Amino acid sequence: MSRNPQFDWLLRAGDSALILAQRLSEWCGKGPALEEDMALTNVSLDLLGQATLWLQQAATVEGRGRDEDQLAFLRDAADFRNLLLVEQPNGDYADTLVRQFYFDAWHALWLSSLISSADAGIAAIAEKSAKEVRYHLRRSRDLLVRLGDGSDESHARLQRAADRLWCFTGEMFTDDAIDQEIAAQGIAPLPSSLREAWLAMVRQSFAEATLTLPPPDAWMQQGGRQGRHTEHLGYLLAEMQFLQRAYPGAHW
Amino acid sequence: MNVSTEQLWQWLNAIGDPELPAISIVDLGIVRAVRWQEDACHVTITPTYSGCPAMQVIESSIVDTLRAQGIAQVRVETQLTPAWTTDWMSDAGRQKLAAFGVAPPAEKAAPASLPIDASALFAPPVVVACPQCGSQQTRLVSQFGSTACKALYRCTDCLEPFDYFKPH
Q1: Residue B116: which of A50, A108, A120 has the nearest Cβ?
Q2: Mean pLDDT across the stretch B145-154?
Q3: Residue-level pLDDT at A1
């Protein structure tokens, strides 16, 4: 645990939004339909805006003169605190969609729980973001049901993606020392407290989508929130950070 | 420099939204407060969506507009809470939007505190009237339109596609 649990906690919040925004932006110009292309890039933009707010707050709390851009572009993989789920490659559209649905369902519940945070700055960001994410969840759930209960091909692909990504969902609900400290300060509830509501949402949506829910007690991968990432994050950062690494301080 | 705040509001009301020039940033509810503090004019704005790229343009338009009126010191402050909602859009703004071809929000925005459960989240959308012909026979084509704040609809009577300003 670092010297400042609040800084680490804010990095976790900002990094998950930032990394998923970057992943979604990879679809720009390549979406399977124009409407999907616009939806993914719009969701990406919302997440990027939210990441900016979280990382600004992190920079303030850290108090070492760094700003949100330096935090985004000048940290290496081991210093990122995002969920492993969001760094997973886009894969086919089913992978992207299931990743989004798993994340949106958690994100909406998590933000909703932060609106009453004892920290006014965090509550303000949560209130702002919750409205946007509710809409993301509406869209990803709607598409999950349509494609899950669609053709044999779309059903099979969604089920495959749902099974493949399942091991990255447990991390959203595991508590560590930082979470305990933040919960004790009344800033955020323990991650584990959101698990039942998330499972209920996913279970109900999967039933509607005629998908089979993977076993909730399956073995789960974890470590992203502590800085231990899958091999995919480094490649993502290499692309995302290239400009600032090659031309330090460049702006437009 | 002692310009009244009424006058300041009037000048600000002439600034169009960069992506919807027909409607002003005051009509949209983006400008939350205007006040004098010592010799500086402070304008408080609130972002529509977290990632809306228009916010930077809006900020510089405010500074440019007030400078052009001779106000040397302009400070634009951003305030997140209470979070912007389409409920703040003025009636004049709604009419201008419709005349511009964008259907205004057809219902009140859901409060941020609404619980996340399926029944509240996935209620069927309300009827959105076509801004071209007024028909109620319209269909959602895509949850996102040309910007984050709009969805894409199509009128099944006059067959025209149109943007719908989402309740938010």
Answers
A1: A108
A2: 89
A3: 46
Mean pLDDT (chain A) is: 96
- Summarised one tens digit per residue, pLDDT across range B69-89 is 999 999 999 999 999 999 999
The Cα–Cα gap between B139 and B127 comes to: 9
Closest CA to B144 of A132, A17, A101: A132
Q: What is the pLDDT of residues A166-183, one digit of tens each?
A: 999 999 999 999 999 999
CA distance A29 to A41: 9
Strand partners, B41: B36, B74
> Which residue in the set A35, A49, A52 is minimally distant from B142, CB to CB?
A35
d(CA B145, CA B103): 12
Residue numbers of B between 72 and 131 with CB closer than 8 Å to A: 80-85, 109-110, 112-118, 121-122
Quick check: A49 and B82 CB within 8 A? no
A interface mutation test: which of B116, B117, B142, B150 has the most A CBs within 10 A? Answer: B116
Cα separation, A228 vs B73, whole angstroms: 48
CA dihedral B64, B68, B74, B75 (to 10 degrees): -20
| Rounded average pLDDT over A203-223 | 97
Closest listed residue to residue A39, CA positions, set A146, A47, A127, B105:
A47
Total Cβ atoms within 10 A of residue B68 = 9
Q: φ, ψ for residue A163 (rounded to 5)? A: -70, -40
Amino acid at A35: E
What pLDDT score does A85 carry?
A: 98
Q: Taking the model in full, what pTM does it have?
A: 0.95
Q: CA A132 to CA B87: how far, in whole Å?
A: 15
Cβ contact (<8 Å) for B116 and A137? yes
Contact A139 B166 (CB under 8 A): no
Mean pLDDT taken over chain B: 91
